[in-house]
Amino acid sequence: MDPNRYSKNRDIRPDSGWKILQAVLTLGLVLCGLVGIAVHLFSSESRPTDWLQWLMASPMNIVLAVATLLPLFLFHRYISHLSNQQRRSASDFPVYVMMLLGAYFIYQLLTTGHW
After folding, report:
1. N or C: which end of the chain has fewer CB within 10 A?
2. End-to-end CA distance of the chain
3. For residues 85-100, average pLDDT
4. Whole-angstrom Cα distance, residue 17 to residue 93?
5. What pLDDT is stored for residue 14 in this prediction?
6. C-beta separation of 61 from 55 below 8 A
7. What 3-state DSSP class applies to 115?
8. Residues contacting 69, CB < 8 A, separation 6+
9. With contact defined as beta carbons under 8 Å apart, do 97 and 37 qualify?
């Protein structure tokens, strides 16, 4: 066993209280966004068969679904062809979107009383 095995970690300092508060707030907003999306997608009024019926109801709905999926596919292609450092900064975008959704669902909960 190498006695200097953990010597590379001697310069690492713990995060400050502000960084921990930011991380907890980020996690809370992301979780609220995920819960809000789940509540809307899997509510008692909406089922996957209803989604399929809505999709097939009009050609415009199919165009809308493709127009939604195309940017997601392009973002995935963009992310997969970046270097690791560039990927880290670009992959923060979905986290920010989820935080924004979490803030929206919290606002909805506070102002209307439901998600």
Report:
1. N
2. 55
3. 79
4. 24
5. 81
6. yes
7. coil
8. none
9. no
In this prediction the pTM is 0.65
In sequence order, what DSSP letters do the residues of 65-95 get, joined into one string?
A: HHHHHHHHHHHHHHHHTS-HHHHHHHTHHHH
What distance in Å separates the CA atoms of residue 40 and residue 114, rounded to the nearest whole number? 11
Q: What is the DSSP code (8-state) at residue 2?
A: -
Give, in order, the Cα–Cα distances in Å from 77 to each of 31, 64, 67, 92, 96.
26, 20, 16, 15, 19
Query: What is the mean predicted confidence (pLDDT) over 97-105?
Result: 91
| Residue whose token pair is 């995920």 | 34
26-71 pLDDT per residue, tens: 999 999 999 988 888 777 776 777 777 877 888 888 888 889 899 8
